[in-house]
Please model this.
Amino acid sequence: MSEAAHAPAGPLAHHFADLDQQKESAVLGMWLFLVTEILFFGGLFATYAVYRHLYYDAFSAGSHHLSWRIGFANTLVLIASSLTMAMAVHSAALGKKGRIVLFLLLTILLGSAFLGVKYFEYGEKIRPCLGDGPSAGCLLPGERFDASALHLEGDAARQAQVYFSLYFGMTGLHALHMIIGIPILGLLAWWAHRGRYDAAWHTPVEMVGLYWHFVDIVWIFLFPLLYLVGHH
Amino acid sequence: MSTEPAVLPKVHYLNAGYGWRSWLFTTDHKRIAILYLVSVTLMFFLGGAYAVLIRLNLVEPTGSLVTAETYNKLFTAHGVVMIFFFLIPSIPATLGNFLIPLMIGAKDLAFPRINLLSWYVFVVGALITLHALVNGGLDTGWTFYAPYSTVFSNTAVVTAGVGIFVTGFSSILTGLNFIVTIHKMRAPGLTWFRLPLFVWAHYATSVIQILGTPVIAVTVLLVAVERAFHFGFFDPARGGDPILFQHLFWFYSHPAVYIMILPSMGVISEVVAAFSRKRVFGYSFIAMSSLAIAGLGFLVWAHHMFVTGLAVYAAMVFSALSFSVAIPSAIKVFNWTATFYRGSVSWQTPMLYAFGFIGLFTIGGLTGLFLATLGIDVHVTDTYFVVAHFHYIMVGGAIMGYLGGLHYWWPKIAGRHYPEWWARVSAVVIFLGFNLTFFPQFILGYLGMPRRYHVYPEEFQVLNVMSSAGASILGIGYLIPMVYLAWSMRYGKVASANPWPATGLEWQTTSPPPTTNFEKTPVVDEEVYDYPKLLEKKEAVLV
Model:
């Protein structure tokens, strides 16, 4: 049988009995996906916990080298994007198509602003590693890593490299999730503009909302773990 | 069997569409199951070919067939292909995919397109990994231990790691799809405790796939990043700790053993009931023991690390927890055995595999207790004793269950019977070949022959030759079903809707089923495994 014979006339897929069953399945599937995401980040959080316990002083030195003010400002930007995302879902539930698009675009804007700030934060650490000259101040882990800016050498320098491996690993994986999320938000905004969602069926908006809030919550944990070590 | 000869239905899922598009763009869970069946069979024979080369090399103590470097690549390829590309997807992605919607009276899995996506992800991951095995190879063992994998190995670790990372998502998506389907798609009246035990086993398996696989994914990613960009996670020269890698790796890779064995246990529960013509003894105990295995399986990983300098107290705790997994496993074995008791036991091929499974799994499980015991483990760590133990579980257990299930549901999948005589012969050949291959390895390991070496002292030759001889018998045993199952798809005797006959919704629809599985959604008002009722209706005679 061809796929066309099965293509649903409305949003209801052929293998579900009704929209409720379809929606409940989608919601449960999304939560399970977020569980796998928690475990995925969990490997990194476990690694972080072990090394922070073993190398507390190096982690504190590395953390003090980051600007907590920039990190805090960025946290506010991301929380604001969660607010606009929640407003988009709320508008969808009310069936206000124009406002769904508006709030999704605002979410994209705030998410992009967050990534822009990260671009400059990364650049400051990576720029000394580039080119042929001496790599003083290079904080990207690898052959050219140099902990002299942190006033560390020997074992402590190696331990600081673990800190920055985790810094780039964890924030990088988080940023990757945002880079994946933003085009999805764009697609969703386009579909909302085309009038795909109404008060009766807007499950995709809710699903993407759950994803976006998850990415936000990961950052809420990353900020204190990476920026505030040893700040009393 | 009824006197009228069975006829194939006019339209069923196999002839519902023709051409490669109707297969490669299908969202029908039954067709996706067939895609998986073809893929994992190819990988099984590839992994088997590596095993043949390993056993050939070990016929002589000097290992004159291949160099030590090549040997390292051979056993790594064997492990990687068999574990990630055959054993883990084998039953869930083929039989599970095919049967779960049928067993619960649904038209399809909850997410048919994600189901197809998972197959494509599997194929892409397999191609990337095979590319690595051909270009540069991989010599780390399937365990990827750091810092050898991240610093010293001169093989294609990053590419292989990416391949396994990608394949992991196929496993995650399958597990996610099953859990949602079992929660949300059950037919009216099909309560949790009316579910077939096959479904319970897959539910437990899916939980492990969801919770474990992401951790191996991120761990392999860290290995790749450390190797490619010289980040410091596990390499001591960069401040890392190689033991942390082992903790993260086994946090997934021990539960992964249960991903391989639990679906087989589900198959055995179905087969044992059908061929004893009895209710499964202790239904709820078998169902709950699957969940218990899934849960406890996450608490035992460090028994792979007893000789790494783990604290003695921690080792004792992990040892005790490892013993506790034996309880739900034994519950299953005792309940199956109790189901035989005073049953009307018959010796069809699926039942032969079930008997084989129970015996071999028991040996594999009991030797697992030897290995969970601290003192014995130190003596036999990294010897052939360990190799024999896990092959009794994974080959003697998982593959026996897989083949038993394939035969049991083959009339449903193909709409035709496999040739019973050939099937019984091959089941016996596989059982004998298996024991001849792996039992000598217990002795070799006890005597001190380490695993992963391509040469060995002369006094071990007799046992190694026995093992290699057994492997060739086992290989022939695996080839026979391959041939007759393919043959039977065209020439086998046409099967009726319920040929054994057996209970369960999958037998209520035609063989093969239509694309939408059921003419109309079934309503369930009775327990599963009501074989006494079949006996009353004089439907007890088996084909």
Chain B has one domain: 28-536.
